[in-house]
Amino acid sequence: MNGISSDVIRGYNDTMILYLLWDHPSYGYEISKQIKSLSQEKYVIKETTLYSAFTRMEKNGYVESFNDDTENGRRRTYYRITESGRAYYLDKCAEWTLTKEVVERFIKEGNDSGNN
Predict the structure, then answer these.
(1) What is the CATH number of the domain that holds 32?
(2) What percent of the chain has pLDDT over 70?
(3) Is residue 107 part of a domain?
(4) What is the dihedral of CA 83, 22, 59, 69, to 10 degrees?
(5) Residue 109 lies in a domain
(6) Which domain holds residue 67?
(7) What is the pLDDT averaged over residues 84-103?
(8) CB 66 within 8 A of CB 82
(9) Mean pLDDT score, 49-66
(10) pTM of structure
(11) What is the predicted pLDDT for the residue at 111?
């Protein structure tokens, strides 16, 4: 296996992004690098997936964007989590705990395949 299927993780892209925005604002490229690093390169978020998540979450009021100038004078769009986004993140964490509990009931561990 070479990594995580985007189909499997799609519902949790928002959770990962909000986690990274919890303590401070950030921008798309930095968030994608952090996801790749924290997942030990098992998941690389596509740029289109990342920016559609930003658009959706901004529309839903979970993040807000703002522009700032970089050290070299270029404009960069940053995102910050809102209070609504914090509540949504906590809901998604609870949902994950439940999802993991249910799915784990259907996972065969080690070599006991077919022995249940």
Answers:
(1) 1.10.10.10
(2) 93
(3) no
(4) 120
(5) no
(6) 6-100
(7) 96
(8) no
(9) 97
(10) 0.86
(11) 56
- pLDDT tier, 116 (very low <50, low <70, confident <90, very high otherwise): very low
Q: Which has the closest alpha carbon to 68: 27, 22, 23, 17?
A: 27
Exposed (0-12), middle (13-18) or buried (19+): which is 89, by Cβ within 10 Å? buried
- Under a CB-based contact definition with an 8 Å cutoff, are residues 21 and 102 in contact? no
Whether 40 is covered by a domain: the verdict is yes
Burial class (CB in 10 A: 0-12, 13-18, 19+), 101: exposed
Crossing angle of helices 47-59 and 13-21, in 10° steps, is: 70
CA 14/CA 60 separation, integer angstroms = 12
Residue 114 confidence class, pLDDT cut points 50, 70, 90: low
Burial class (CB in 10 A: 0-12, 13-18, 19+), 65: middle
Q: How far apart are the first and last CA of the chain?
A: 25
